[in-house]
UniProtKB/TrEMBL annotation:
A Pfam family: GGDEF
PROSITE patterns named among the record's database cross-references: EAL, GGDEF
Classification via Gene3D superfamilies: 3.30.70.270, EAL domain
Keyword Transmembrane helix: yes
Transmembrane regions listed in the UniProt entry: 17-34, 72-94, 100-119, 131-147, 159-181, 193-212, 224-244, 265-283
Organism from which the protein derives: Paractinoplanes ovalisporus
Family annotation (InterPro entries): Cyclic-di-GMP_PDE-like, EAL_dom, EAL_sf, GGDEF_dom, Nucleotide_cyclase, Rev_trsase/Diguanyl_cyclase
Keyword vocabulary terms for this entry: Membrane, Transmembrane, Transmembrane helix
Domain EAL: 489-742
Domain of life: Bacteria
Name the UniProt record assigns to this protein: EAL domain-containing protein
Length: 751
């Protein structure tokens, strides 16, 4: 017998045991049918059925399947059925009339119930689609059973126990068939053991159905060809248990999207048509004509819908550009790959998430048509990089591809990942332009059959971004810390967006004191977050995230509004409006809405432009458009601009000389220790001299002691800010501080 479709040849003798068992048993079964009946040949029947039970127990012990309980019940069912056959063979041996019901009948009923429980347990994770398709096949069978077997049996009279036995056996067979079909369809009968299992249940069902009919009309004779089905049943089920892929025969734990493929469609419709044909043949007169008409109509409908169904399946499962499986099909196949993981952890399922680096540049420069041609070439390269006939390459969309590697090891994934990041360096010529693509790869492996497919895909995506962050054109294996970091970022994003709406953000104020007069130069507004679970958070814990996700503009607008409202309160209480410095993200400076928003806010509160100072980091000095556009326009309207944390960035003196600033704030890392460290003092002295030569105000940050303050005065620093005066305090405390220091009426903010 050839190997079943899709079944790889197994080199070892133990791997072929299922095949030799099936061949030998089939030969013995045929011999039982064709040889004359005698005392010797009569024992072939129970011997074959007993061998099926023995094979099932051997396979269960050798294979150690994950669904061990289901296989144990199935082996026990075969054992009970074999015991019933031995009892009947004993009646024949002693030429005794078997009573009805007999002990053998009780064993058969118990075997049916155990087999039904086994397939129900095996298929209890099966999805709705497989249940519907199994129902399409078995519901008509149930109706035929009722019409031809059960109803006549109930009407025939007889002992209650005998009628019960006669009815329970075919009903049990029907339940076994339904469960087997449901399990097989949910597994798509991808593995040979699944096909053997379903075939064995069908082989059990057919002779049972025939026997029920023949028993009613008294036509059953032992030793006929119909007995072949009863012998094929244990042979097929025993072969399924002995098969080396038996441990991987598992229904997926996670529901997959089952597209009704042409093959599945033909399987279901063939069963329905077979039942229609049976109904037509068993009917009489006009009913037979109706049955034939229904059969012809159903056949024509099946033929008509075959091609549209194929096209619909392709559109639902394939990427239209590359012809590769799409996301839906990838997740479906990943679901089955997880279900088929061996219980001993000898292999894993791997996902390699591939993303092209800088692909957007291709679309922007050469157009989307050229980008599509490049994607087709990339798809071909990826397919050529994987293991032949084993791995699945899918395109999720855009420039994202995923490789599914079932039955893989870490070494296998390392080889494929290395191949991907090295072979992509070869150029691709598109419209005469040489392109040198590179790919970043995220690797996620698991040996846990309970893993969630969508989560695995997300983890591989996370590892891919880690590869990009690490330098692009490389592979990165998923680490649990990536998931924790991604989860933390997601929660931070959600919480921050809620904070913007729920009023959890507030400002504290840090004074900047003019060192010549001792009066207030300005307050710096610093945003804080009163997190409901984590307490008060500093800007370093959430502002970078706001910049990354694009909500820093909302954050700035909220701070500006709170500052202007607080200035209004101070103006009403003290008769003057202290200037306040507000930090602006460099990313926000390129937003054309910034200038109109700032000017509109000042006008709405009747605040003069000099009441506002915008503090930007040195990063802003790099962008010429920002300096000559946004900042120049703001300064043109009278808003002061200060360079924050000067000396820690990568600005150049020539940028400072462009005169787009009003003040330089010397970072605390330089100011700290100038009273005792001559080198630090020299650096600060040079910074102050630079600021004055450019006619800018020099402001020192991080002043914490009197010695540092005195040294800054000697160096001619204009203003100072630090814990020596106060820590950043909320609006109420700032109001009390202003009230206690009436001499603090601010000096002009701008030079």
């Amino acid at each position: 017998m050839p190997f079943l479709p899709g079944e790889p040849a197994v080199a070892t003798r133990s791997g072929r045991a299922w095949l030799w068992f099936l061949l030998a048993g089939s030969i013995a079964a045929v011999a039982y049918i064709v040889l004359p009946q005698n005392q010797i040949t009569n024992w072939i029947f129970p011997a074959i059925n007993s061998s099926g039970a023995v094979a099932a127990w051997i396979g269960l012990r050798r294979g150690r399947p994950r669904n061990r309980g289901a296989w144990t019940m199935l082996a026990a069912a075969l054992s009970l059925s074999a015991a019933g056959d031995i009892i009947f063979a004993g009646y024949d041996l002693f030429h005794a009339e078997a009573p009805f019901p007999s002990v053998a009948d009780v064993l058969y009923i118990a075997a049916h119930l155990l087999a039904a429980a086994a397939v129900v347990k095996m298929s209890h994770h099966a999805g709705r689609d497989s249940m519907l398709e199994a129902g399409v096949l078995t519901v008509p069978l149930a109706l035929q059973y009722w019409i031809h077997f059960i109803s006549p049996t109930l009407q025939s009279g007889g002992a209650t126990l005998a009628v019960l036995v006669a009815v329970v056996t075919p009903i049990g067979t029907l339940i076994v068939l339904f469960g087997a079909l449901r399990a097989g369809l949910s597994m798509e009968m991808r593995r040979a053991p699944a096909r053997l299992l379903v075939a064995g249940m069908v082989a059990w069902f057919v002779p049972d159905a025939y026997y029920a009919t023949a028993s009613l009309n008294g036509t059953y004779v032992g030793g006929g060809w119909m007995d072949l089905g009863w012998m094929l049943m244990p042979l097929l089920l025993g072969a399924a248990a002995l098969h080396p892929q038996m441990p991987q025969l598992n229904v997926p734990l996670h529901t997959s999207t089952n597209i009704l493929s042409v093959r599945r469609y033909l399987l279901v419709i063939a069963g329905v048509l077979a039942l229609d044909a049976y109904a037509a043949l068993t009917a009489d007169g006009a009913d037979q004509l109706v049955g034939v008409a229904v059969l012809i109509s159903a056949s024509l409908a099946a033929i008509r819908i075959r091609r549209p169904l194929r096209d619909m399946g392709l559109r639902a499962t394939q990427d239209s550009l590359t012809g590769l499986p799409n996301r839906t099909e990838l997740l479906r196949r990943l679901t089955f790959a997880l279900a088929e993981l061996p219980a001993d952890g000898s292999s894993k399922v791997a996902l390699l998430f591939c993303d092209l680096d800088r692909f957007k540049d291709v679309n922007d420069s050469l157009g989307h048509a050229a980008g599509d041609r490049m994607l087709v070439t990339i798809a071909e390269r990826i397919v050529a990089s994987v293991r032949d006939g084993r791995d699945i390459v899918a395109r999720l969309g855009g420039d994202e591809f995923v490789i599914l590697m079932p039955e893989a090891t870490d070494a296998d994934t390392d080889v494929v990942a290395e191949r991907l990041v090295t072979t992509f360096t070869e150029p691709i010529v598109i419209d005469g332009v040489e392109l040198y693509p590179s790919v970043s790869v995220g690797v996620r492996t698991t040996d846990d059959y309970r893993a969630d497919p969508a989560t695995l895909l997300r983890d591989a995506d996370t590892a891919m971004y880690a590869a990009k962050n690490g330098g692009r054109g490389r592979a990165e294996r998923f680490d649990d810390r990536y998931a924790a970091e991604a989860s933390a970022r997601l929660k931070l994003d959600t919480d921050l967006r809620h904070a913007l709406v729920n009023g959890e953000l507030f400002c504290v104020y840090h004074p900047e004191i003019d060192l010549r007069t001792g009066r207030l130069y300005a307050f710096e507004a610093l945003v804080r977050w009163k997190h409901p679970d984590r307490g008060i958070l500093s800007p370093d814990e959430f502002v970078p995230h706001a910049e990354t996700v694009g909500i820093v503009g909302q954050l700035f607008e909220l701070v500006l509004t709170e500052v202007l409202v607080q200035q209004d309160a101070w103006l009403a209480e003290f008769g003057w409006r202290p200037p306040v410095a507000v930090n602006v993200s460099p990313r926000q400076l390129s937003d054309p809405r910034l200038v109109p928003m700032v000017l509109a806010a000042l006008e709405a509160h009747g605040a003069p432009p000099e009441a506002l100072i915008l503090e930007v980091t040195e990063t802003a000095l790099v962008d010429e458009t920002v300096m000559t556009g946004t900042l120049a326009e703001l300064r043109g309207h009278g808003v002061a601009v200060a360079v924050d944390d000067f000396g820690t960035g990568y600005s150049s003196v020539s940028r400072l000389a462009d005169r787009h600033w009003d003040a330089l704030k010397i970072d605390r890392s330089f100011v700290s220790g100038i009273a005792t460290d001559e080198s630090r003092e020299g650096v600060v002295r040079a910074m102050i001299a630079l600021a004055h030569s450019l006619k800018l105000r020099a402001i020192a940050e991080g002043v914490e002691d009197e010695e540092t303050l005195a040294r800054l005065r000697e160096l001619g620093c204009d203003a100072a800010q630090g814990y020596l005066y106060t820590r950043p305090i909320d609006a109420a405390a700032t109001t009390e501080m202003i009230a206690a220091s009436p001499q603090w009426e601010a000096v002009p903010a701008a030079v």
